Amino acid sequence: MAAAAAAAAVGGPQPPQPELPAPGLALDKAATAAHLKAALSRPDNRAGAEELQALLERVLSAERPLTAAADGEEAAVAGGGGGPGAAEEEALEWCKCLLAGGGGYDEFCAAVRAYDPAALCGLVWTANFVAYRCRTCGISPCMSLCAECFHQGDHTGHDFNMFRSQAGGACDCGDSNVMRESGFCKRHQIKSSSNIPCVPKDLLMMSEFVLPRFIFCLIQYLREGYNEPAADVPSEKDLNKVLQLLEPQISFLEDLTKMGGAMRSVLTQVLTNQQNYKDLTSGLGENACAKKSHEKYLIALKSSGLTYPEDKLVYGIQEPSAGTSTLAAQGFAGATGTLGQLDSSDEEDQDGSQGLGKRKRVKLSSSTKDQSIMDVLKHKSFLEELLFWTIKYEFPQKMVTFLLNMLPDQEYKVAFTKTFVQHYAFIMKTLKKSHESDTMSNRIVHISVQLFSNEELARQVTEECQLLDIMVTVLLYMMESCLIKSELQDEENSLHVVVNCGEALLKNNTYWPLVSDFINILSHQSVAKRFLEDHGLLVTWMNFVSFFQGMNLNKRELNEHVEFESQTYYAAFAAELEACAQPMWGLLSHCKVRETQEYTRNVVRYCLEALQDWFDAINFVDEPAPNQVTFHLPLHRYYAMFLSKAVKCQELDLDSVLPDQEMLMKLMIHPLQIQASLAEIHSNMWVRNGLQIKGQAMTYVQSHFCNSMIDPDIYLLQVCASRLDPDYFISSVFERFKVVDLLTMASQHQNTVLDAEHERSMLEGALTFLVILLSLRLHLGMSDDEILRAEMVAQLCMNDRTHSSLLDLIPENPNPKSGIIPGSYSFESVLSAVADFKAPVFEPGGSMQQGMYTPKAEVWDQEFDPVMVILRTVYRRDVQSAMDRYTAFLKQSGKFPGNPWPPYKKRTPLHPSYKGLMRLLHCKTLHIVLFTLLYKILMDHQNLSEHVLCMVLYLIELGLENSAEEESDEEASVCGPERCHDSWFPGSNLVSNMRHFINYVRVRVPETAPEVKRDSLASTSSDSLSSLQSSRRPKVLQRENSGTAQVFSLVAERRKKFQEIINRSSSEANQVVRPKTSSKWSAPGSAPQLTTAILEIKESILSLLIKLHHKLSGKQNSYYPPWLDDIEILIQPEIPKYNHGDGITAVERILLKAALQSRMNKRIIEEICRKVTPPVPPKKITAAEKKTLDKEERRQKARERQQKLLAEFASRQKSFMETAMDVDSPENDIPMEITTAEPQVSEAVYDCVICGQSGPSSEDRPTGLVVLLQASSVLGQCRDNIEPKKLPITEEEQIYPWDTCAAVHDVRLSLLQRYFKDSSCLLAVSIGWEGGVYVQTCGHTLHIDCHKSYMESLRNDQVLQGFSVDKGEFTCPLCRQFANSVLPCYPGSNVESNLWQRPSNKSIQDLIKEVEELQGRPGAFPSETNLSKEMESVMKDIKNTTQKKYRDYSKTPGSPDNDFLFMYSVARTNLELELIHRGGNLCSGGASTAGKRSCLNQLFHVLALHMRLYSIDSEYNPWRKLTQLVEEVNSQQGNEEQQPEVPILYHDVTSLLLIQILMMPQPLRKDHFTCIVKVLFTLLYTQALVALSVKCNEEDRSAWKHTGALKKNTCDAEKSHEVLLSFVISELSKGKLYHEEGTQECAMVSPIAWSPESMEKYLQDFCLPFLRITSLLQHHLFGEDLPSCQEEEEFSILSSCLGLLPTFYQTEHPFISASCLDWPVPAFDIISQWCFEINSFTERHAEQGKALLIQEARWKLPHLLQLPENYNTIFQYYHRKTCSVCTKVPKDPAVCLVCGTFVCLKGLCCKQQSYCECVLHSQNCGAGTGIFLLINASVIIIIRGHRFCLWGSVYLDAHGEEDRDLRRGKPLYICKERYKVLEQQWISHTFDHINKRWGPHYNGL
After folding, report:
1. Residue 1093: its pLDDT value, please?
2. Alpha carbon of 374 to those of 314, 331, 415, 423, 1841: distances in Å?
């Protein structure tokens, strides 16, 4: 290494070198550094400088090959050198030393930081970082803040949100260009630079010398490491290797930037200094290494232009020194025209057609593009070359961060922005080639958004570096690589090219970084104005937009279904939205005032030019090609939106920016084609094109796209309609919708272009379109606030919406990212005006509701607008939903009972520029259509629906609302051939045409039509009045008999019009011949035989309406003009009763309006009503029609029957669900058959829910209860304090599990096992506090053999995922509740149990003997019957439900004592849990909440059966110790070597109770039960006394000892607690129990003054838990109801219920617990016997004697952890917290809500034996049930065994909504009700029943 360095040093002219110490010891480095610093500080520092240079040359030599093992030879040359990293380390150490100038590096850093003047934060972050955005403080929409700055600033009440950064970003705090100063945090509130001291010169002197060299060294490394990737092999691996090796160097630079402003300005100087760069990198010296490096750089530069297989452009490459740049050779040389030299063999071509290689490219207009734009890749500074390499290496994260960290330095920011712009084209090429374009896109945007969001900077770069030209050109060039020939219209001759949406560039959105930069800079006014003024740029941009015009063309499949459904339409819609629409909105936002008229004129002008070019390129004349549609017409939309803006904001005269009529006709065709295609798609005419075409139709109207797609299209059509001839426009519409043939009065017609089944929906489509066209005012005069309100009302009418979905559904105006909605009102104020908030509700089923907004009543009443709803619905069902809701509102408010029609809504007045639109309503063509349709509906022609009628009436009403004032006929002035429709109506005003009677109509009908035969005579008289009716014939026919002008043909009319307009516009008047283009698509085949018939009509529109009224109401003469009764109506016509209603109301409303408009109409209406209307002649129904009618009728009836059945079934199901599934309310429970019946029933009868038979359960065919067994640790979570524990949110708060019930019981058992005999210990306690088995049932029963076959069928049916059949899981066949076992019902009659309940008069002594005998009998297992087998298998299930560690507590594994303990503990667990479900006490009484569905009775049978297999030796049976005095007291002392038994006072009484009862043969007799309870109560009471005596202090004890001793000989001494207490104290004083009280103990004992009352209360509280469990047990075994009571009398009520209280005792008032005692043997004897055991234990282990005493029960109900009010507090603490197991910050952190443990969800880091951490924790903490809060998602996840489900969130935002995954990032607050529901489900173990969406987790959570 040293040799190499020396060799390198010999290269240049040698300065005299002092002997440098060998680089090894830090001390030496420091000394050298100090020496050099001194030398440099001298005034004449040349010697020092040279010396330093030499040293640096030696230390930082780039000779060493970077990739140590890259090539064998190079490695050999290097000669070892201590591994690749050692030398770099060494070099870095040197640099640090030199910078510090001999001092310590850390001190140096601190010194530099002191001079940091930066008022900017500038913290740079990478993807996934959590940052904040405040819209209130932001000037630019891209503004963002780091969490620290955000929390330090004051943003209360602002509109902010938290977000997870996608591409990375930087903190803008302190930058007043991007955000308002009020939002700066405390640290960055503007510091005045005066108070920062000046940087001393010598501090950074060394840096100025060392850093250039260091950066050059880095650049050399980058040059060395870069090898051009071979064409086929991506070289990312090599690049990454190089980058890994450079990690320390770049990190070092990054650390320097963090030292603050002083160091940054030094770095800026170094990076931008051109002289330094020139000296070091020119490669001119003799230094071989530098030369080699420079050559590599040149090669890299050259190759950048060439490695581009797609384009294969041929360049002559010049040396950069020759003055022209390499970039000119990169394909941007517009001037030299290199674009033309395309290689014709373009193998990349996707279609494989050779011709496309030479396809026509749009040449960049070379004149405007100055070559110098592209002529700049000549690097003049380190910064430029560093950026070049950063791009070459595809933006490594470290480099990006370093470059961005420098941005707070203003000088650097400008230099860097210019450099970035200079490399823009190069960036685009690298991006296109990149394999990781997503990552790279993110990194590019990470940089560019920091540069271009700043308006000042963007303006400067636009002026100095031609930013706009570069951007537009780069975009254009990028798209040029994926153009294909357009197939729209004229496939063969089309010259138009469009982008190919299938290419990766569009499919993967590769273009978005460039487009988003463009949108970003256009948001700055100064930049946008420059763009709008520059004609050349506008031309280029329109060129760019035209690439998207007509892309993704759809051709209708007519024969078979398309094989492959392409999904390219996503790409197409995204491209139009991002690349065309968003820049358009950006530009529009700067065209808001009169002064900007010029800009609009410019855009409109170039837009029209581009459109004209497009029409020419696709060879378009006047007929669109059939069966094809494109949804993408960005040029049309640009034109439309700029027109709208011009009229709305700039007061431009519309006509001044409109083209001639011919152009308007062309403009309207394609948008109209889209509207017709939408109707076709919804009529299923495109069904063979697959689902994707429906997807396109939906996307086109979807909320994010509609204001850039369908709205401009409809607006453009409105503009065209307002300026074109109305007859022409209307005929065009019906022709495009293919329903012309339908508009005939004849009852039959032939449609050449449409199948009969589509006719109706197409006609509906056409009429609906006309209604929308004529009534929509979005761009025709509504203000922004009105638009917002209308949009909101439409969305709310479809469905109630959450706040966020409303925000999402309402199309935003310009710049979608800004979230700023224009108009004076904000979103919120409009929302509160139109909607009411419904707070989130909770249903017992557990489905979580969100907070919803629902429309106010007056909105339904006045603002519901069906037209707007139809326009905005993505799914047709939403329209129906809106109507249903409207109907419900009318019913509820009593406004209208029936089925209403969509209401007619008054419209906003039209803007004067668009008045012409209303001429559509007053044109004869429309009137003929309306007349025909009314007539057909009246005559019941087929294919007409109520919807059609509704639309017809709507159009008539629109016409009446918008009629011209005077009724003159202006048509007369038009000279020209008389048109055939003049014979229908005299004028064009709807008001007068309504009363015009039409007598005869000549129609063309097929020969087979009924009219032909009927009217053969009449047809001869062709009356001049006979008006003619439209029927479209094929064109062939028209040409021949064009003489019959009276048959009115829409198409002929439209053609004629078009011809006239063409003639008018072209000067030669002789051009009468039709352009030949459209004849190509005349109807195929021969013309059908048509003949003319004449119909007698004699109706006017008014008379048709009145007859329609009769028809709709089903009554003759039902219409009576209302003004005859009440003349007032005509004066104030606004009558609310007409606002809502059905068709009848609509007809009445129209007639009233018609009468109002003219006196003539009024008179005619009265006349018509006077004539008694003859009935409508019955139609002659042909047999065929009859058949179809019958079919319809039958179908209708069948449908009704089906509906009825379904409704009945639904109501049944509902009532069943209510009874069976209701989890919370006991009242409406259905009594299941399990409860014991009346005495006369001999045996319990069960219904099997599978086979439906009922009968008793028998030995050979047992019945079972459907049960769910689950392990539970809920009991173990009880704590002894009422306050629930809080979730820790700081490092200090921790939760320790010592005080939980489970922990306390564990400690106690292990203590007992330490000192006493194991088998005896296992009888003294219960287990199951953790991992106990809880059994619950839905109450349904089934035969066990039926269940087996049911399980078989489930096993074969693999559809049912969500539970595992192999583990025995299933759902109850009746109520679908989750279950996993069947509990056999014990056969036996109920009478028997009644007999057992009779009280007997035996004495307690006799009963005690009987109990002992019964327990002594060995329980033989019943013979091998089916029942016993089932009992065995269910016992196995119960054991397997919980883990082994929760079953085995014995020291000798597998001992029977274990099973014994486990079995009675199962009973204990279920009783304790039921007690908790009742709220911890029995005050409420009644049947249990699970009462009718309890399975404890059956469970007891199973347990007892098994427990009797293990008989306890009568020697050890605790029963004897309780009921007999044992003589041989000393026997225990004898066997010292054996451990003694557990003293009886240390036994848990409840456990003893269960042991005694389960050891008895079943069924149990009531008096035996009472006897056992009485005996155990004496022990319990003694334990209470002992505990009390330990609790009080020495003086109290001696006092009590005496007072009690005095009363010892009274009659009821055995029932007086004072006497007993004194006796206990005197007995225990013999041992050492009281002795061990040191002084410290006394301090702990509470200084309570014990009064008799407080003692009594203590004793009662001690005994209550036992009494509660016993009462529950009695309730289940004997079916007795529990009495309800007040809390204070619970003890007395329960004890009398259990028979402890003598019956006569009820009277005495102050209740004394001791009166319940009933001693089986003399009290004092047995107490002294019990105390003796304890004394003998304390002799040996005095300190443990107290700990083992049974303490009073102190457990409170279990609770989940208490959560903080605001979610942010949880998030901020946990989302960066490190995991205690793997010490990393988890990707998905979660926290257990039961115990507060922090875990890694799905983290492989903490996996143990294939179990991930959450699953593992759920087993340890909850025995298989885990409740976790996912920190990054705010959602709660439940793990239950092998399944999991997302439960929902308990944190909601201000609008009552969840924010899953924190996508919206709004502040979230705890919802107490939801948390209560969660806790309730946890305690009641109902997660499985209530939550529906379970899935397996495969241990991966």
Report:
1. 76
2. 17, 9, 18, 9, 65
